[in-house]
Design goal:
- InterPro entries: Niban-like, Niban_1/2/3_dom.
- By secondary structure, the protein is an all-alpha fold.
- The protein has a domain at 69-304.
- It contains seven helices and three strands.
- The chain has a three-stranded antiparallel β-sheet, covered by helices on one side.
- The two termini are 42 Å apart.
């Protein structure tokens, strides 16, 4: 209760500041968009000129650095990152599976449809439940980068732990949302208790297939970003001199540091991509290869996008449900698919 109270206090204060910043951005957007449309060719030319200058300055140093000080350690860094992260995402899958399975058993034992509203409300908050998610989060406590922190000037591993934990929470929230939406679409909502339980089990299996693919994609992206942050050679202290290459009118659109990071990315990304690709072949981390495609998409895909929050109370009990703020968040479109490759269905 203390944790929840603190969270609400911080959220309310930061949300007010965030909303103020977003409002300011929205006010400035029309003028910036007008400038971009008018001067796009000049902006692109200016950025390419800046990138060429930075590239000439950075790449000779970066290539030597990558060859001598990065390539030999990429695999060990990746392994150190992957083991606790993969365990954490596997725990998220297990927690979601257990919660839905327990809900299904309780519906059988405690009165069926009348209990569904109560359980769906609890499930909606699962991703933000500090106790139930703790077993997932604590897997990242195993992340150790001894011997690498000094070599790559990484002051702390906390940023990687926290980012992975945020991804875990988001994947859990996405899984819950997809489950709720598919259950809501299920024909015959007034079906009997046994039929409802069979529907829940069938939908759970579909959502877990989606989770396996999504979590693989999210983890590979996380690994690439973390490797880049750890290994990218740094010489940002010398970037100020490149600012004078940008016309003042374009300073809002062309950022020296972003351009620098793009150049550095080009120098190390090949090795990073290769390391992640090789890691995906190792079944112990449950990463799908990039060659795998998703097809046989759910026919109701378009219904899984952002929409009006589902009123479970009205659907199943005839009683209006209390408004849930979490259900009003903007939602990315969810995809429920079967994953296949040349070897067949996985």
């Amino acid at each position: 209760q203390i944790s929840d109270a603190v969270y609400r206090m911080v959220y309310e204060q930061t949300k007010a500041q965030y909303d103020a910043v977003m409002a300011k951005c929205e006010q400035e957007r029309p003028q910036m968009e007008s400038t971009i449309r008018t001067d796009m060719d000049q902006i692109i030319t200016s950025k390419e000129h800046l990138a060429s200058k930075i590239r000439a300055f950075v790449l000779p140093k970066a290539e030597v650095c990558v060859r001598n000080h990065v390539q030999p350690y990429i695999s060990s860094i990746l392994e150190a990152l992957m083991t606790p992260t993969s365990q954490g995402f596997a725990e998220v899958r297990e927690v979601f599976f257990k919660e839905v399975t327990d809900m299904n058993m309780n519906i059988v034992n405690e009165g069926g449809l009348e209990k569904l509203v109560e359980y769906m409300e609890k499930l909606a908050h699962l991703a933000f439940h500090p106790v139930k998610m703790q077993s997932c989060y604590e897997k990242m406590d195993q992340l150790k980068l001894e011997g690498l922190q000094q070599r790559f000037d990484v002051s702390s591993t906390s940023v990687f732990k926290q980012r992975a934990q945020i991804h875990m929470r988001q994947q859990m929230d996405d899984a819950v949302y997809t489950f709720k939406t598919l259950l809501h679409q299920e024909p015959g909502k007034r079906q009997g208790k046994d039929d409802l339980c069979k529907s829940i089990q069938r939908i759970l299996e579909r959502v877990l297939k989606k989770y396996d693919y999504d979590s693989s994609t999210v983890r590979k992206k996380f690994f690439r970003e973390a490797l880049l942050q750890i290994t990218a050679p740094t010489c940002k202290g010398e970037l100020a001199k490149f600012q004078e290459l940008i016309f003042e009118d374009f300073a809002s659109f062309i950022l020296v540091e972003n351009t620098y990071e793009e150049v550095v990315l080009q120098s190390v990304m090949k090795d990073i991509m290769q390391a992640v690709k090789e890691a995906a072949v190792q079944r112990k981390h449950n990463l799908y290869r990039d060659s795998m495609v998703m097809h046989n998409s759910d026919p109701n895909l378009h219904l899984l996008g952002e929409g009006i929050p589902i009123e479970w109370g009205e659907e199943y009990s005839g009683q209006p449900e209390a408004e849930l703020a979490a259900d009003k968040r903007r939602r990315a479109k969810q995809v429920v698919s079967v994953i296949q490759d040349d070897e067949g269905v996985l």
